[in-house]
Amino acid sequence: MTTYPSGLTRREFEQELDRLEVVSRFPEMPSNLFDEGPHLVDTPLTPWGDEVRELAVDAYRRFIHGETWITGGGAREMEAEVISWMGGLMGAETPTGFLTAGGSESNMCAILTAKQLSGRRGGSVVFPDNGHYSLHKLCRMFDLDAIVVPAPEGRLHEVDPAAIEAAIRPDTIAIIATAGTWAFGSVDPIAEIGEIAERHGLYLHVDGAFGGYILPFLERSGYDPTIPVWDFRVPGVHSISADLHKNGMAPPPAGSLTFRDEALLAAAKEICPPNGTMSGTRGVGPIAGAWAMVRLLGQAGYEAVSLASMAMRDELNAGVERIEGLEIHPGSRINMSLIHSTTLDLRPTAEELRRRGWMFAARSVPAPVGMVLVPMPHNVGRIAPFLADLEDAVGLARPLDAESLSASGVSSYGF
Ligand SMILES: Cc1ncc(COP(=O)(O)O)c(C=O)c1O
Prior knowledge:
By secondary structure, the chain is of the alpha/beta class.
């Protein structure tokens, strides 16, 4: 048995890895996880799934030692290919951009670009309060005021464009709208917001971290021709975040930021030289993994993945609606369901489901708890067992009262 310089034997090292996988709940993940990616396609619904997964892992492994400087030629080609393909599907004629570590970095780079273009040192950014917390984070980081526009009374997932316009200040440098909000799954009225941005000469960034890699395919597959236009077809849109490590099914970290044109990328590079990214050295493994998924799945593959995810979401929603006291929050256009109740305190239900092994996110809006489920192809065959457990666990819920409404919710990720 080999002993390494640290004194560990190979066996001890492998046991440690096994233990860490269990701590990370990897063994349970394939069947019980209802959360965002990464879920390399591996399901009977996609006959090519296993082979695609192996090839993506192989691409990742072959570029595992790659960096984006001296040996970055391949990475530059791969990321250009992903951006140009997806940018085209999102309606840009001359898309440019780069791959990032995920939605947070993409949103940061977009707003840094807006700041660079504005020539201001400080300023403000306007966004609806359904925006992801990374928007608050970037405002704090870049010394920008976050002007958060509340949802219309009683319609948490909706956005009133007039309220967005009214919130604009003389020092506003950008508006951010979301296509595929966490956790409503809704799409903001981006056509209307685009007109407002154009009228005020403002940068408009769309956070499509969640929706970016599913909305174009739901539209093209005919699943939902009524999805409001949210991408570069809206003339006011400057940039879009779209995460490959969510609905793009790629291994993390893999996000993307796409600009409408070269001039915007040039501004990004001015503020974040030399590439426009926050980081300097980037690992090429994730870029290669993401590129592999895009090259192997293409439009037809992503349509199949999207339809599979939505079939499960629809089955889940129908089952939840049949359980007395439970509701699906309205507004979702993607594979995201927010389960809540207006009569029951579902905190004991959520805890019981987690005790039974189900992995999902939760949030305290609507109070006291909303359970957020993101069905993806690996969840095939798991909706009915989940619904059976949910029906059981609803029995533990207490009637909703003032105390439960003011109490804190369950933890977001169950740890
Ligand atoms: C809408 C939205 N934007 C941004 C992010 C941040 O993405 P990441 O965690 O990859 O940085 C998320 C993550 O869930 C998201 O849902």
